[in-house]
């Protein structure tokens, strides 16, 4: 045990920094805490109940790892410096965001993470889809388009499009803003939550959405990429992350075994060949195994009746959305009545001025 680890063991508390996609939080934790204790604390601070999608990620040498829930935090290979930094991120993605994501905070965290991955080109996005997604991101931030408020240049400081898309065309920043604003103006009437959900509904159809990629070798020693996502396992050529050579859906996999750096995928159909591959790094193998188990568990869970907790959450979400809808309609009606009253007042003022002018002219004629 190193000196830093020994000092940690002797201390009663240690400090952590949690980085979310929106802000950072700092906590003081007890040395006996397990990963679950810290994770639950963060979820409570965020007001998040759909905890099964998320995890605490940290950097370790040349890869990343996820904090294990059942082990003590300090017994894991976490960074040595305090505060220990963890990233609160989505570890698993839904198959259908609109059907599965219940809480607004869950949806918002997914929106921020997916938007960041698209902008950093970890998810490939065609130009037209990029512009449409950018328009929904703008709506989520600024609300309804108002030409008196959102004047040319209001998006000058915003990062909205992947650099690859910008470099494809000889267009100025003003031209891109004009295109995005034209789409943005068409989304009038949506709330922030609705704009974020529209963003996710488009993004989830992109080829690289929700896929974790790993460099592997098959039993012949050929370099390949393994993709792990909500639907199953996919094998890619190293230079093509968009179209898999073959896929193994979770419902067609009988077993995944791991032994001595080698993974074996056994299809449900015993006539189909077993696929074997390996990764040279133990940490990566552990990460692959974690993601396989977690994604498969969620795949099975989606095909069962919702738990009582989830049913209650969905009922509460429906009630909250209905309440917001009624409130929004009330505000719209008040706004409409106010605008009508202002138009009537303006008309009366115009008529009064007209009558005053006519009276003035009549006096002059007399």
From TrEMBL:
Compartments (UniProt record): Cell membrane; Cell projection; Cytoplasm; Nucleus
Molecular function, one GO term: actin binding
Domain FERM: 14-303
Keywords (A to Z) from UniProt: Cell membrane, Cell projection, Coiled coil, Cytoplasm, Membrane, Nucleus, Phosphoprotein, Ubl conjugation
Gene3D superfamilies: 1.20.5.450, 1.20.80.10, Phosphatidylinositol 3-kinase Catalytic Subunit, Chain A, domain 1 (3.10.20.90), Pleckstrin-homology domain (PH domain)/Phosphotyrosine-binding domain (PTB) (2.30.29.30)
Family matches, as CDD domains: FERM_B-lobe, FERM_C_ERM
Keyword Nucleotide-binding: no
PROSITE patterns recorded: FERM_1, FERM_2, FERM_3
Stretches assigned to coiled coil: 305-365
GO cellular component: cell projection; cytoplasm; nucleus; plasma membrane
InterPro entries: Band_41_domain, ERM, ERM_FERM_C, Ez/rad/moesin-like, FERM/acyl-CoA-bd_prot_sf, FERM_2, FERM_central, FERM_CS
Database matches in Pfam families: FERM_C, FERM_M, FERM_N
Membrane topology designation: Peripheral membrane protein
Protein name per UniProt: Merlin
């Amino acid at each position: 045990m190193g000196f830093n680890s020994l000092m940690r063991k002797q201390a009663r508390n240690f400090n952590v920094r949690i980085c979310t996609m929106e802000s950072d939080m700092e906590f003081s934790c007890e040395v006996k805490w397990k990963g679950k204790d810290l994770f639950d604390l963060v979820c409570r601070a965020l007001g998040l109940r759909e905890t099964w999608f998320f995890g605490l990620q940290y950097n370790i040498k040349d890869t990343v790892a996820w904090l294990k829930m059942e082990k003590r935090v300090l017994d894991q290979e976490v960074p040595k410096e305090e505060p220990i930094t963890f990233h609160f991120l989505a570890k698993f993605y839904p198959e259908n965001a609109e059907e599965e994501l219940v809480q607004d905070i869950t949806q918002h965290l997914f929106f921020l993470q997916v938007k960041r991955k698209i902008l950093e080109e970890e998810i490939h996005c065609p130009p037209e889809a990029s512009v449409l997604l950018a328009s929904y991101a703008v709506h989520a931030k600024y609300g309804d388009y108002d030409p008196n408020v959102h004047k040319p240049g209001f998006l000058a400081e915003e990062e909205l499009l992947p650099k690859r898309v910008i470099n494809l065309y000889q267009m100025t920043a003003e031209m891109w803003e004009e295109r995005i604003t034209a789409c943005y103006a068409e989304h009038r009437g949506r709330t922030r939550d609705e704009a974020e959900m529209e963003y996710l509904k488009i993004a989830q159809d992109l080829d690289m959405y929700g896929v974790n990629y790993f460099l592997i070798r098959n039993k012949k020693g050929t370099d390949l990429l393994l993709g792990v996502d909500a639907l199953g396992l996919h094998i890619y050529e190293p230079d093509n992350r968009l179209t898999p050579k073959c896929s193994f859906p979770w419902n067609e996999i009988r077993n995944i075994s791991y032994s001595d750096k080698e993974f074996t995928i056994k299809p449900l159909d015993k006539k189909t060949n077993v696929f074997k591959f390996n990764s040279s790094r133990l940490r990566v193998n552990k990460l692959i195994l974690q993601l396989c188990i977690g994604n498969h568990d969620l795949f099975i869970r989606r095909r069962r009746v919702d738990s009582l907790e989830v049913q209650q959450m969905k009922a509460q979400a429906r009630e909250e959305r209905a309440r917001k809808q009624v409130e929004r309609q009330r505000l719209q009606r008040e706004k409409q009545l106010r605008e009508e009253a202002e138009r009537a007042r303006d008309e009366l003022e115009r008529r009064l001025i007209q009558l005053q002018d006519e009276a003035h002219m009549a006096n002059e004629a007399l």
